[in-house]
Amino acid sequence: MVAETSNLMMVRFRTNLWNLDLLDEVIEYYGIKKKTPITLTFMRYRNGGLIPETFREFYIKKVHILNSYYELDEGIKRDITEQFNYLGKLVGMCGSYKSSFCKDCYRCVWAYERFLASKEFREVLGNFYKNIDR
Description:
Layout: E1 11-15, H1 20-33, E2 38-42, E3 44-45, E4 59-64, E5 67-72, H2 74-82, E6 91-93, H3 107-116, H4 119-133
Parallel strand pairs: 1-2, 2-6
Antiparallel strand pairs: 3-5, 4-5
């Protein structure tokens, strides 16, 4: 975990069913303690063999154009994300429950605009311009 978070736009957490304990730690540290936005990116797997046997039943095989992959069932994605609703926009997912495409999300844009408006960014920008004037 990073101690100084004022320069972080957001934390992206690559989520699957076998790292949910780590997700809880990340939410506690970055979301609750540091108030840094967290974006959950639900992992897709081209090779289903990479998914541990005990979790395979929760992944669905999908095809996009010619490429097949395994993606977590949307109901499970919803169950994981909704447990953090009490944190509002601080925790959200990349894409939507049905799609992981950027066109269905723009969460990164929201986090970037939030960071640009932050006091920390204004201080960095002010120091930058001071150094240019020298």
